[in-house]
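[09:14] KT: can someone run the structure on this one? pasting the chain below
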Amino acid sequence: MTNIVSLRNTGGYTRMDNELYEALIGADLSGRELRVALAVHRQTAGYNVQEARIAASYIAEMANIHREDVSRIISELLRQRVVYRTGGSRSPMGIAPVSEWKIDSKNTRRNDKQKAPQCGVSTTSKVAFLPHNKDSKDNLVPSELVAAAAATDAETVAVAQEQEPTPVPVQPAPKAQDDRIPYAEIAKLYNTICGHVLPKCKSLTDKRRAAIRGCWNLTFGGKKVFRDMDFWEGYFNDAAEHPFLTGQRTNWRADFDFLTRASAAVKILEGGYDR
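[09:31] RB: done, structure tokens below
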């Protein structure tokens, strides 16, 4: 039996340049970053095009990753120059040349040969047994992961669990339209997409809710564009890649309060900060 399958007997295949193939194998990318990069390659090279307009929701379905996480991962791949875009968040993207990649170093563990292997020796056997992770006094990784997870969970809960104050009407009244505004979801989307380059939103105050409400009711181009969560996603993606808003031109950076200010949102959408 052979594991080599003739290409003529398959349902099709995607060509990959050998240099790109080997670069992806050796790239210090996380598992999800690699999956998203492969999805971008499949939707470009797989259709014999250099770049294509690919929705984050489509990549999420291909890679089995949440759409909000896909948006964040695309931003990371753009920052590391593994993929590129020809314009804003909804413009075509493609795989950048390997020579332009600037991937963060994630694997800090050296691949040196261990001088003296740690093992336990049975008194009744000549076979050496490796110790369990719990038995190693120098094993600090699990506690560090637990601490990091606890900090992330605490921050997420602080945004997601805070509820809108319950009004006390004098007379029964129908539910206000503003009550349907997904404040917590918008804040979470901002943290997911922009939290690695801009200050995170750690709490939803009445002032921030009022600002979100102003954007929610804002009319731009004849439409209330901010009532679409996909628009919020594209808006935050553009902000996370904007040279001025992310402090690449000056020492100032935008934050959640700035991006949800109606006057600033209009200027961003009109390209007022691009010059």
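[09:33] KT: thanks! The two ends are 63 Å apart (CA to CA).
[09:34] RB: yep, looked fine to me
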